[in-house]
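Morning, I've got a small favour to ask if you have a moment. It would help a lot if you went through both lines with me. Thanks so much in advance, here it is.

***
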Amino acid sequence: MDCNAQLEELMIRYALRRRDVARLLGKPLNSAEGYSNSTVDRWLSGDNPVPEMALELLTMKLEGREERSDHWQCLIRQPLGYRDQRALEVDLAAVMAQIERGNLPRTGRTSRPEALQRAGYLLELIAQLGGPRFQPHREKLLKEAARLRARLGERRQSVPLRANEAVHSETMDDLARKWGLSRGADIRRFRQLALSGHV
């Protein structure tokens, strides 16, 4: 399995920042603001592979620590993908509950096109088809989606909403096409989730 993807998945699952990874692995922080470490940066950018020993050490140090998954980051980054549609919808339900409380998810400074595409698509989907639960937040959702679209520019990749999902034909989802996704959400299941709040 890709060790770089495993590192990213651990960071999402335990809400770790770059500096947290560096400290856990005993690596010095950058002198400028001390937010990261150059070795960790190269791992996360994909420039260098993560050594298996470093991944094993990090996993060992995280044993017993409470998981604090960032549901939004799981949805948009998907380093290891989802085993099925229902697993994705569990995270989507948590994000929708967060939005309903008035807390828009933060996409962060990622430069990965697929993360920005998924984020913008989901925000706009919730705004357009989320129904009365999300009407009070519709304007803010669309504004954030537009901001992400400006950041994305023309750097789009043909990826499905659910990573590793097999796509055998062109999507009929106009919103997915707008964001450059090869496949979007299951609209029937999305409407049910938006209406009930349950997977």
Summary: The radius of gyration is 18 Å. The chain has ten helices and two strands. Residues 3-62 form one domain.
